[in-house]
């Protein structure tokens, strides 16, 4: 009984101590530290591998109780950035007084990188050619570059003598006295630190430390020292038409495209799948076809290639983007990207086309998987007898679909009823004998595309006769 009471008293004391020593919430995360086989967790009361917090000195010094080694150590945290935390630790001993928080002059500085760090803009603006020195060996071979990628959070380094390329995503920037640093993550989830100096917006020194500890990034004897020369492209400014300067979306809203000046950025929300088209020059304009063809620099993450980009204006709020090889601009068989984009704003919504009117549709058409998804017909109708489509007839902004249903009751009795869906016309255009409509479902708010093919008095929708 005495032993049990002692254990409970000890647990109670530990709980009280933990309440008195709360680690700063800005440190709560899983962290990567070089040399560790797993991520280190810091939470309200514990620092993994260091122990439980039992005392706090000032705002950044803590005493941790190491139950494994039965000793205490003081840790001094230095937060350089939300995504980067450094610390020094004292020797582990039995002392819990303020003398525990004294550090030897040569105490190591360890660096932690937040595991779930979000990318942020890099503090440098490529592009540069470079020469470099590593471990005393100089490389003056041409072909080494520091180059831009699809977005401002990324860049790539190519070392010619090593025939090695590193693609990097910036995650943290900070200054220490007169020194500027930033940390970047590779695609293999390794971390690299950089030290740089600038003068009049020009980079005057640039060093890279392969050690994720960042401690030797400014040491020219251990870091890779690079000499940079700007290689900014000198082509004449090329810009896209101003009427394109807005946000565009795919029909399912999974892709957002921003066009501004000479840049087209494609955003899927995935940091590791960035795309951009930088305008180099206008190759051809076809006003009668509302078409313009450009030579562009295509960025897919850090992969860069010159391509042809065709922009077709289908309506005031619908465009198509097509890309292909730069020497095969009009060969549709070689297009590697075909996007239909629309912008949905009050001033750009178009009325339904007036040349379609009323139609009776085969019920087979509206028993397709697509129609079930849009209208959820199966939930409302046991059997479809007929379907009527009215385009802009009752309201010039609405496409009305009327379902006439048969509901069987017993063997000889049937109930006939109807229900309607009024969807909103967002855009329409015609190519040859095909009428295209982009419509927003009143049921799901989802946008969908309908194409109607007309041949004399016959009408086909979705390539099926109706």
Provide an overview of this structure.
This protein is 6% helix and 51% strand. By secondary structure, the protein is mainly β. The strands form 4 sheets. Strands 2-1-8-7-6-5-4-3 form an 8-stranded antiparallel sheet. The protein has an 8-stranded antiparallel barrel with strand order 9-11-12-13-14-15-16-17. The radius of gyration is 32 Å and the shape is flat. The chain starts with a helix and ends with a strand.
Question: Can you give me a brief rundown of this structure?
Answer:
With 466 residues, this protein is mainly beta.
The portion of residues forming beta strands comes to: over 45%
Number of helices: 2
Q: Biggest β-sheet: count, sense, barrel?
A: 8 strands, antiparallel
Distance between the termini: 87 Å
Which structural class is indicated by helix and strand composition?
Answer: mainly beta
* Helical proportion, percent range: under 10%
The low-confidence runs, each spanning 5 or more residues with pLDDT under 50, are 1-18, 364-374, 460-466
Net shape = flat
Mean pLDDT: 83
Count of distinct structural domains: 4
Strand order of the largest sheet: 2-1-8-7-6-5-4-3
* Extended strand count: 33
The value of Rg in angstroms is 32 Å
Give me the secondary-structure topology:
Elements: H1 2-20, E1 29-32, E2 40-42, E3 46-47, E4 51-57, E5 61-66, E6 71-81, E7 84-89, E8 110-114, E9 128-134, E10 137-139, E11 145-148, E12 154-159, E13 164-176, E14 179-186, E15 191-199, E16 202-209, E17 224-230, E18 247-249, E19 256-260, E20 263-267, E21 275-286, E22 291-300, E23 303-315, E24 318-325, E25 337-342, E26 357-361, H2 369-375, E27 383-391, E28 398-409, E29 413-431, E30 434-440, E31 447-455, E32 458-461, E33 464-465
Antiparallel strand pairs: 1-2, 1-8, 3-4, 4-5, 5-6, 6-7, 7-8, 9-10, 9-11, 9-17, 11-12, 12-13, 13-14, 14-15, 15-16, 16-17, 18-19, 19-20, 20-21, 21-22, 22-23, 23-24, 24-25, 26-27, 27-28, 28-29, 29-30, 30-31, 31-32, 32-33
